[in-house]
Amino acid sequence: MAAQGFRPVYHPAGHDHALRNAVQDLRTGRWVAMARLLDETSGWDGWTRRTQVLAAVAAGTDVVHAWRTEQPGSIAATVMHSRVAVERAVRAHRAGHARTRELWQEAWTACREAAELAPADPVPWVGLLALAALDGRQRMAEHRLSPPAPMLAPGPWGLLAEAEKRDPYNREAHHRMLQFVYARSPGPLSEAVNYAQWAATSAPVGSALHALPLYVRVERYRRERGHERALDLHWVAEDAVRDAERALDTWFLFCATEEASLLDLNHLAHALYGALRFDDAARVFKALGPYYATLPWAYRTARPDDRALAEDIFLRARARCLTG
To answer: Cβ distance 171 to 47 under 8 Å?
Structure first.
């Protein structure tokens, strides 16, 4: 595995080969493989993950619109329409596009319609949580509800509760909630730390939410760019090592790694590598197989937008761990 010449592969589908085939068809403008895949998907975890990946690919195309035109009664197509609408609104907001408000309203309406047509589906509520991050000032009443525990801030707790009612500990729902916390509090990350710790400690063994604190730690470093010498000390601190070990012991050792998020696996490998837990990190690198994600490795480089630098850092960390 650590042999020279190894080159990692980035693909949003990761180990999910059926999803990979649907993505390939989607990129050529065809929707039939996507429809078939979603019809065969069981379990809300796989449904949430697959619809998210497909929407990210479909957002720049008219494929989902064509699907709805061909099959206007398809509930899956309606849910995917809401997914694509949310993805477009989030991208427009990130880019400061003039149509952001219009796209936001369209996405909000699409999510509400999908929630009515698919009342058991958590995805429309996950979409509404994603849109909440566009409302950093919490102008909408549904984005400033009282929190369920002390040390947590007001937010879209009702939306999270609706997603959790349908799929307890839904990974994407909590990551969307974390994005809202970032948008609400652009300064110190104390609110994000409190939220991630609350979500992780509330989650059962095997839940991907045990990796959530690792994301906050990466975000803290990202906001402190320029302090390169402090990077490794950042990951060997007692609380950092504890978060990495907890994610390993309560999530990774119990999850089906072929179904796990590539981002989660990369964040865990990165945290264990930074904590000098090379043997444990090696287990995660092996679970990744040929796949990787540019984040969080890119933040260890001088130019986070340079994918080649991120890949180089990943390869060096992987080789260090796999060679003992």
So the answer is: no
Helices (H), 139-189: 157-166, 171-184
pLDDT digits (tens, 9 = 90+) for 55-80: 999 999 999 999 999 999 999 999 99
Q: Which residues of 181-214 are buried (b: 16+ CB within 10 A; e: fewer)?
A: bbbbeeeebebbbbbbbbbbeebeeebbbbbbbb
- Collect all residues with Cβ–Cβ distance below 8 Å to 292 and sequence separation of at least 6: 8, 9, 10, 262, 266, 311, 314
* H or E, element range at 125: helix 123-132
The answer to pTM > 0.90 is yes
CB 304 within 8 Å of CB 297: no
Name 323's Cβ contacts closer than 8 Å, sequence gap at least 6: 2
Region of residue 206 (left: phi > 0; alpha: psi -120 to 50; beta: else): left
Q: Is 275 exposed, middle or buried (0-12, 13-18, 19+ CB in 10 A)?
A: buried
pLDDT tens digits for range 207-217: 999 999 999 99
Q: CA–CA separation, 216 vs 212, rounded Å? A: 7
Q: CA–CA separation, 246 vs 201, rounded Å?
A: 10
Q: Alpha-carbon Rg of the chain, whole angstroms? A: 20
pLDDT tens column, 92-121: 999 999 999 999 999 999 999 999 999 999
